[in-house]
Amino acid sequence: MNSNLNNTSSNPESAMAGQGRVVILGAGESGVGAAKLAMQKGFDVFVSDYGIITDKYKAALEKLNVPFESEKHTEELILNASEVIKSPGIPETAPIVKKLKAKGISVISEIEFAKRYSNAKTICITGSNGKSTTSLLTYHILKSAGLNVGLAGNIGNSFAAQVADENYDWYVLEISSFMLDDMFQFRADVAVLLNITPDHLDRYDYKLENYAASKMRITQNQTHNDVFIYCADDEESLKAIGNSNPQAKTYTFSIFNTVEAGAYLQDNTIHILTEPNNEFTMSISELALQGKHNIYNSMASGIIAKVLELRNETIRESMGSFKNIEHRLEHVAKISGIDFINDSKATNVNSTWYALESMTTDVVLIMGGVDKGNDYNMLKDLVKSKVKAIVCLGKDNKRIHDAFEDDVEVIVNTFSAEEATQIAFHLAKRGDAVLLSPACASFDLFKNYEDRGNQFKAAVKEL
């Protein structure tokens, strides 16, 4: 690894501190963190949120003495910015963003802004599925090895707030495509692309190639001193890589073929080799994370650990002791011999495919919500072979009925987590599993996927 981080900004701290007005759009975790760092660096800061700012973040902004507005965007207070830091959730098509772009005002992400003020090295993990699990597992391995490491991005606390308050040597950053769209000078020391499957296509003109190009921005600005890790089994990733010509040193992982540099599966054993004569092996039965998709996640994290030259014993212990995140194939309870599993974080079809693929019993599947242009065809075989009933949880379930009416005998509509859980319980029998894996966003009935998962868990406990 190259130990001398280049300054990744065209606007280093010495040039920017206290010399401009920074406007932050969105007052969530990333926005408030960005406000904290911008205030610390002497900028004139203003925060504007078109939605309602929660009490928690209002209190944080008041404590920082940052002026802010809620439920509106006042143009005269925004269009005079020297730079704008935008929440990843705000699309390019938002009227205020269009006006900023028309005026030539720079619009960047919190990640881009924060990295200007940090010399820490970054491990950046993206992909349509598995990035939260892989980020947390990587963080667990590095922390267990004694590295001074932070966790941020699409997970945990704001990167900018940690840059303001902490002094980490390393960061594991979970990076979404929305974040990547507003990252320009940022450079990842280690970039990981887990997979590319259709997701968020409403933000990319419903073109998979646009979404894939966004994912490949994880490699932008990388040099031969940096590392790029990707899945050799993922066709869309291979296609996107072929179109972008990354410059970093590459490592691949595969469960079907042996690889020269990276990780592969042979006789139910993971083999990881990043340099000659120092191979790491581990039986997949010893992994804390089970299921085919988690073999991929463990391989990616293992390659990172080997690239950082961590001890094999530490990697093995960490990969065997890791506990998965809430709302991702989380076992809630066993009631009357029926397992209840919370996979509310599965907000796209591919995530639900992974969940069903890992199931070893008959399933009553709770799915539905805000459909982001889903193609349910990839689920049909698994639904036919494993799913005995579908309980729809959402305001509009027509597309789910149309997709699966020939594959399962029972499809029921429900409009609350409590109702869905009770009906699923009655449809299941001893030895079955009730799986909440929605394949859809949650915003029709819930605040977010966490709220959906928490309501499901509460409903299970009431059975």
From TrEMBL:
One of the GO biological process terms: regulation of cell shape
Signal peptide range: none
Localisation per UniProt entry: Cytoplasm
Primary location recorded for the protein, binned into one broad class: cytoplasm
Gene3D superfamilies per the UniProt record, alphabetical: Mur ligase, C-terminal domain, Mur-like, catalytic domain, NAD(P)-binding Rossmann-like Domain
Enzyme class: ligase
Superkingdom classification of source: Bacteria
Pathway(s) annotated for this protein in UniProt: Cell wall biogenesis; peptidoglycan biosynthesis
Annotated EC: 6.3.2.9
All copies of domain Mur ligase C-terminal, residue ranges: 327-440
Catalyzed reactions: UDP-N-acetyl-alpha-D-muramoyl-L-alanine + D-glutamate + ATP = UDP-N-acetyl-alpha-D-muramoyl-L-alanyl-D-glutamate + ADP + phosphate + H(+)
Keyword terms of this UniProt record: ATP-binding, Cell cycle, Cell division, Cell shape, Cell wall biogenesis/degradation, Cytoplasm, Ligase, Nucleotide-binding, Peptidoglycan synthesis
Positions that bind ATP: 127-133
One Pfam family recorded for the sequence: MurD-like_N
Cellular component aspect of the GO annotation: cytoplasm
Any one GO molecular-function label of the UniProt entry: ATP binding
Sequence similarity: Belongs to the MurCDEF family.
NCBIfam families given in the database record: murD
Function according to Swiss-Prot or TrEMBL: Cell wall formation. Catalyzes the addition of glutamate to the nucleotide precursor UDP-N-acetylmuramoyl-L-alanine (UMA).
Protein name: UDP-N-acetylmuramoylalanine--D-glutamate ligase
Source lineage: Bacteria, Pseudomonadati, Bacteroidota, Sphingobacteriia, Sphingobacteriales
